[in-house]
């Protein structure tokens, strides 16, 4: 075990699987107490147990669109672990469709979960962290928010919005000792991406100079950097973790 996050408490949204779980695992292995939240509370409980860190792991059901549920998760972290030092706003969904076929509901759902959810997590965490005069907030954007992807006007808009939100919040919170940064993953290997049609996968791979997909652990390591004192003079930044895709 390393100790980059020794005695710290981290809350991660949408962390029952995928990138969120990889972040939780790495944070735990670096000494942090971890609160896993997910809209699927049962899955969050299973994920928290999988960290195998006993009382240093907690779980909560949380729909990030509902500010009261986000506040409840923050209160849980404070009640069980006594502090809240790191928040990773990772929860997200996709409702891909071309503009011609996308429904208003599909647009609204994606904007709500990604952008409003990230805003809820950022503002409510910041309200606590400003009193403590320290803290790190990490928002998960996407390469789609930089370049835009066909069939993702909702997702690309939300992920671009997260960058703007991150920079504005970073300016508001810097003098309170709270840092706010964003990560933009590219093509990351997961059950969802590996289920793509072969031609779609090959097209994306052709755009990556490193000629491979990323692993969830490679996003987690950047989140660890932002969460730890190694990035103590960084705020309002956006880390592209893409294998060089769309430089």
TrEMBL record:
<dbReference type="Pfam" id="PF13561">
    <property type="entry name" value="adh_short_C2"/>
</dbReference>
<dbReference type="InterPro" id="IPR036291">
    <property type="entry name" value="NAD(P)-bd_dom_sf"/>
</dbReference>
<dbReference type="InterPro" id="IPR057326">
    <property type="entry name" value="KR_dom"/>
</dbReference>
<dbReference type="InterPro" id="IPR002347">
    <property type="entry name" value="SDR_fam"/>
</dbReference>
<dbReference type="InterPro" id="IPR020904">
    <property type="entry name" value="Sc_DH/Rdtase_CS"/>
</dbReference>
<comment type="similarity">
    <text>Belongs to the short-chain dehydrogenases/reductases (SDR) family.</text>
</comment>
<feature type="domain" description="Ketoreductase">
    <location>
        <begin position="8"/>
        <end position="191"/>
    </location>
</feature>
<keyword id="KW-0560">Oxidoreductase</keyword>
<protein>
    <submittedName>
        <fullName>3-oxoacyl-ACP reductase FabG</fullName>
        <ecNumber>1.1.1.100</ecNumber>
    </submittedName>
</protein>
<dbReference type="GO" id="GO:0004316">
    <property type="term" value="F:3-oxoacyl-[acyl-carrier-protein] reductase (NADPH) activity"/>
</dbReference>
């Amino acid at each position: 075990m390393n100790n980059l996050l020794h005695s710290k408490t981290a809350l991660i949204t949408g962390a029952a699987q995928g990138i969120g779980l990889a972040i939780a695992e790495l944070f735990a292995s670096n000494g942090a107490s971890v609160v896993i939240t997910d809209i699927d509370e049962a899955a969050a409980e299973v994920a928290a147990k999988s960290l195998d860190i006993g009382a240093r792991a907690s779980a909560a059901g949380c729909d990030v669109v509902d500010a009261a549920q986000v506040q409840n998760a923050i209160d849980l972290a404070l009640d069980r672990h006594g502090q809240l030092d790191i928040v990773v706003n990772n929860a997200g969904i996709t409702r891909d469709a071309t503009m011609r076929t996308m429904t208003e509901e599909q647009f609204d759902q994606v904007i709500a979960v990604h952008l409003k959810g990230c805003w809820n997590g950022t503002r409510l965490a910041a309200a606590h962290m400003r009193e403590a005069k320290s803290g790190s907030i990490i928002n998960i954007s996407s390469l789609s928010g930089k370049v835009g992807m066909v069939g993702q006007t909702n997702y690309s808009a939300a992920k671009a919005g997260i960058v703007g939100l991150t920079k504005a919040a970073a300016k508001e919170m810097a003098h309170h000792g709270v840092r706010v940064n964003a990560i933009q993953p590219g093509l990351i290997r997961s059950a969802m991406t590996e289920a793509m049609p072969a031609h779609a996968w090959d097209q994306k791979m052709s755009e990556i100079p490193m000629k491979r997909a990323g692993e969830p652990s490679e996003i987690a390591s950047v989140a660890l950097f932002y969460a730890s004192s190694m990035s103590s003079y960084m705020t309002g930044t956006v880390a592209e973790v893409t294998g060089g895709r769309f430089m």
